[in-house]
UniProtKB/TrEMBL annotation:
This is Mitogen-activated protein kinase kinase kinase 19-like. It comes from Branchiostoma belcheri (Amphioxus). Keywords: Membrane, Transmembrane, Transmembrane helix. Gene3D superfamilies: Transferase(Phosphotransferase) domain 1. The lineage of its organism: Eukaryota, Metazoa, Chordata, Cephalochordata, Leptocardii. The chain crosses the membrane at residues 187-212.
Length: 615
């Protein structure tokens, strides 16, 4: 639907150009995906090859042999005078006893060391991580062609993010991964049900034992066997020899590879499904591309056709995500977190914030949980999950750190919360309590040293703000609601971008007017409302003013009127008793307030300018 809506906003010539770009990117993506999947296949084969000697080392070790012999001596049948005529049955029973003990020892080794369980877990996790990267690469390749302004994320940063995701609370995978595997659950473990696999017990191939029987059964005649078996030392030596021959016969048998493959059936099945999914994914893209390229209807007709369907798609998305949260996802219990009546430390339009203590990564952590005031609905679940996913993915000193998601269901209603690091308060709260440079007024000359310290403090906070903004822009995101109330400050003065509910991948930006109107860039209100990361830079201009003056810009009626009248904004407020920003500060604000979005500096450029300022 998004592709068709993008298509509707383009002329036929522009569509043809995009179609060619997508074809090239699809070919590159297919090559990339093929290389990754080939690497995973090699990894699986190596793991299988490594498992066999590890198992044999244990099975053939002197310690294991001694344990089997001791146990065999205890359980071995007694050969009485009456049993001599059935001596072959005794011998066969002894061989079967040894084979059973060998299998028990290997199973005990696997169970105790969880060798195959660990191998399976590591393989499945790595398959998940690699496929998530493939899925993200696929998304970015297509969206980059649809939106040439999109900056793709380098592979190394995506890998770091994927590694950070590994310990997430709900172990979710991407939608593409779920579709590829033919399951909708966010857990990989239920794949055993989807693929018909159940817990497998390690069973040694009987061919090896049969071979051992063949090697030994004719080795001793009746009289020699009976004489040997009745002597305890000879019988012990017989069981030791039998154990070694049986172990060697098993190790030389090719079916041992099949045994390991059977034990690792889950990752093998997953990899097979993923390898089948890549060509299907590309084929679906090519089919869509053909449909888009063949579209001959005009822009007005297409917009009239597809625009109303967007609402229906969003409703369906909300319903699916609600089902997932209620039935498939694993979260911390919100009831348990809130049962001790934690201290409320903040409250906003959409939720309350409490100081809480949770256990994360086997450590007790003091954090904050933001709890939605109203139960989540199909209309609000997407925004909530978007904020959660943004905080999970964006890992930076100047972005609020995510710990976990908490949820509880009562009478069918879902209450949710996001647990994050604890901060002192919002940037606006901090600014109101701090004597910013403007507040020194005429005293700034007499109190030069304190004025300089005040400037140095807000300069540092401005640099941190730009660092956080530059980071999320580098990841391909737009914040879309940048203001001092959505920025937090820790007790040591670290600035944290927060309230990420409206933050979106630039490629996913569909022209929705959102955020706080006062701080929004002019292009946000344009007819198509198409904007990019420079919209955040326009909002940064307001923040730089507020950081200098220590008050919200709307407290200045003169400045507010200019915002409402949509005229070029000044780089200072009209408070006569307060000190205006230094010239470099004003020049940077003017650059941020450029109405032409292409003329605004990047967040990185703003950071460099701030760093270089002196008073």
């Amino acid at each position: 639907m998004k592709a068709k809506l993008h298509n509707a906003n383009k002329t036929r010539e522009e569509r043809e150009i995009q179609a060619k770009a997508i074809k090239v990117r699809l070919e590159k993506f297919e090559q990339y995906a093929g290389q990754v999947m080939a690497g995973l296949s090699i990894q699986l084969k190596k793991q299988i090859a490594q498992a066999i000697p590890a198992m044999l080392d244990h099975m053939c070790s002197p310690e294991t042999t001694a344990e089997i012999v001791t146990e065999a001596m205890k359980q071995a049948p007694i050969l009485t005078k009456e049993d001599e005529k059935n001596w072959r049955d005794v011998r066969n029973t002894a061989v079967s006893l040894v084979s059973g003990l060998i299998e028990e020892k290997v199973q005990a080794w696997d169970s105790t060391n969880m060798y195959f369980d660990k191998m399976e877990h590591n393989l499945v996790n790595n398959f998940k991580k690699e496929f998530d990267l493939i899925d993200e690469r696929h998304h970015e390749e297509i969206q980059k062609a649809l939106d040439p302004d999109l900056k793709t994320v380098p592979d190394n940063t995506k890998r770091a993010a994927a590694a950070a995701d590994e310990d997430d609370d709900d172990f979710s995978m991407t939608t593409g991964g779920k579709i590829a595997l033919g399951v909708t659950a966010p857990l990989w473990i239920p794949l055993t049900v989807a693929t018909g696999l159940s817990a497998l017990v390690l069973g040694l191939p009987i061919i090896g034992i049969v071979a051992a029987k063949g090697n030994i059964s004719e080795a001793l005649e009746k009289s020699k066997f009976i004489k040997m078996y009745r002597n305890e030392e000879s019988r012990r030596k017989y069981f030791e020899d039998l154990t070694k021959k049986a172990s060697n016969a098993i190790s030389e048998n090719k079916e041992l590879v099949a045994l390991v493959e059977r034990r690792l059936a889950k990752p093998i099945t997953i990899l097979t499904k993923l390898m089948e999914a890549i060509p299907n994914l590309v084929a679906a893209d090519r089919n869509l591309l053909d449909v888009l390229a063949a579209e001959s209807r005009g822009q007005d007709t297409l917009l009239l056709l597809y625009q109303p369907l967007v609402g229906g798609c969003r409703l369906l998305q909300g319903q699916l995500e609600m089902f997932r949260m209620k039935n498939l996802s694993k979260y911390l219990s919100l009831d348990r977190i809130l049962k001790d009546n934690p201290k409320k430390i903040g409250s906003g339009q959409f939720g309350d914030v409490y100081k809480v203590t949770i256990l994360a990564d086997k450590k007790t952590i003091v954090g904050a949980v933001k709890v939605a005031k109203a139960p989540i609905t199909v209309d609000t679940v997407t925004s909530f999950l978007q904020e959660k996913d943004n905080l999970r993915f964006l890992n930076h000193t100047n972005v609020l750190k995510y710990y976990a998601t908490a949820a509880s269901v009562h009478d069918g209603c879902l209450r949710v919360g996001i647990v994050t690091e604890l901060c002192q308060g919002t940037l606006m709260e901090w600014l109101k309590d701090y004597k910013t440079p403007a507040k020194w007024g005429r005293d700034h000359a007499a109190m030069r040293r304190m004025y300089e310290r005040s400037f140095s403090t807000i300069q540092n906070m401005g640099v941190q703000l730009c660092q956080g903004l530059s980071y999320i822009h580098g990841k391909g995101y737009i914040h879309r609601d940048l203001k001092a109330d959505n920025i937090l400050v820790t007790t040591d003065g670290t600035v944290k971008l927060a309230d990420m509910g409206l933050t979106k991948k630039m490629a996913d930006q569909t022209g929705t007017i959102c955020g706080t109107p006062l701080y929004a860039a002019p292009e946000v209100f344009s007819e198509n409302a198409e904007y990019n990361q420079s919209a955040d830079i326009y909002s940064l201009g307001f923040l730089l003013l507020e950081m200098w003056y220590g008050v919200p810009v709307y407290e200045d009626p003169v400045f507010l009127k200019k915002v409402v009248d949509k005229i070029t904004l000044p780089a200072q407020l009209s408070f006569q008793s307060q000190l205006p920003p230094i010239e470099p500060w004003q020049q940077l604000i003017k650059k941020c307030f450029q109405r032409d979005r292409n003329s605004r500096p990047s967040a990185l450029a703003c950071m460099k300018e701030l760093k270089g300022m002196k008073i």
